[in-house]
Design brief:
Length: about 130
């Protein structure tokens, strides 16, 4: 993991995203240029988890926007949680990560569903 590059990509001031990339295995998942830059820094595994496990947490008639939080502890463990819409509900998806090279801190991503495809993007691209 290139921490410096991850921080740069995550914290860059953006005004939306004009380029989206299709997930190579989950064809109904696209992700923004900011998310792509974060993944290039060394966290493609996070995209895979979101494109499979978090995507499966979306239920018909449920929320269409998930706030995905990854809290990384100093011992390199993490907790990944996805909460729908307002954040007041308990997490619809939760997973403990035994080891990660993501930098210590809390990282937030959005995952939206329009009825046909899922879009993953950074808060600065909202």
């Amino acid at each position: 993991m290139n921490d410096k590059e991850f921080h740069r990509a995550y914290h860059e001031i953006r005004n939306g995203s004009d380029v989206f990339f299709r997930h190579p295995f989950c064809r109904n998942v696209i992700f923004s240029s900011g998310v792509s830059e974060c993944a290039d820094a060394g966290c493609y595994w996070l995209l895979d988890v979101m494109a499979t496990d978090v995507k499966a947490a979306f239920k018909p008639g449920g929320g269409n926007l998930a706030v995905v939080r990854v809290r990384v502890e100093p011992d390199s463990t993490a907790k990944l949680e996805a909460t729908f819409e307002d954040g007041e509900n308990p997490p619809a998806y939760s997973r403990d990560i035994d080891f990660t090279t993501l930098p210590v801190g809390e990282w937030v991503f959005f995952m939206a569903f329009d009825g046909q495809q899922f879009t993953i993007y950074l808060p600065s691209e909202h």
